[in-house]
Design brief:
0% strand, single chain, EC 2.1.1.17, phosphatidyl-N-methylethanolamine N-methyltransferase activity, 73% helix
């Protein structure tokens, strides 16, 4: 019995010791907080030295950013034309396609949905050719950037262009002309959703493949302007996807409902 009591006493004593240690640690932490000090186990070195607040940002070398900014002339007319061409293209085809879906104006004008869709496809291709031309002109109007002007960046750009071309061409082959150029808005609906390559790799592979092409072109030309214009291309596609995706899904949802009622 005495052995049992000793054991229980030792256990309870150990528990009280642990509690005392914990409360002591809490009091120490409270004192540290009152004096403006806090020690973290995650990164004591940074906390001890004041963390990022102790970094003297005035000592940072901003010469690279200054040089990059010097190479980019945002108000330059050819740069502005390229930006306008990039933004205008998806805006144009979305407005025209929705107008066609609402009024069937192009279908009546061209005598049928397929001819109308092919006509819009030809116009979109011409606009895209002009967009690519304007981007190339804008890049040539600005100087090359030395950090990008090397073989490694050049071949990385070439690889991006090759990858982007694979996505664009394979998307076109999977969708066809009407599937690529908004045939859904003309009432030319696909029997089922395309799920093969490259659509099993990513959503909207044609848009992102095109973006990769422009980024590759910018890198191959060591052009910071080309990289910036690529960002504008990606942003314009992102906005276009936000409008096109739900609208196209609604078209197929209505088709599905009509089929159920038949």
């Amino acid at each position: 019995m005495s052995a049992v009591l000793v054991t229980l006493a030792s256990s309870s004593g150990g528990l009280r010791y642990s509690e005392c240690w914990w409360h002591a640690a809490e009091r120490e932490q409270t004192v540290c907080l009152k004096h403006g000090h806090f020690m973290s186990d995650a990164n004591p070195a940074l906390d001890c030295c004041g963390g990022l607040n102790s970094v003297d940002y005035s000592q940072m070398d901003m010469s690279v950013l200054a040089e990059l900014w010097r190479l980019i002339d945002l108000p330059e007319p050819r740069f502005c034309v390229a930006v306008i061409a990039i933004i205008f293209n998806p805006f144009f085809w979305n407005v025209v396609a929705r107008w066609e879906h609402r009024t069937r104006g192009l279908t009546r004008l061209f005598g049928g949905p397929y001819v109308a869709c092919y006509a819009l496809a030809g116009l979109i291709l011409l606009l895209n050719v002009y967009r690519s031309h304007s981007i190339t002109v804008a890049m040539k109007a600005h100087p090359r950037w030395e950090p990008l002007d090397n073989a490694h960046v050049y071949y990385a750009g070439a690889a991006l262009m090759a990858l982007g071309s694979v996505f664009v061409i394979s998307s076109f082959m999977a969708l066809g002309v009407t599937g690529t150029f908004l045939g859904d808005y003309f009432g030319i609906l696909m029997d089922q959703k395309v799920t093969g390559f490259p659509f099993n790799v990513m959503e909207n592979p044609m848009y992102w493949g095109s973006t990769a092409n422009y980024l590759g072109l910018g890198l191959m030309n060591a052009s910071p302007v080309g990289v910036i214009l690529t960002a504008v291309v990606g942003l314009s596609y992102k906005v276009a996807i936000a409008y096109e995706g739900p609208f196209t899904e609604e078209i197929y949802r209505r088709r599905s409902q009509r089929c159920k009622h038949k």
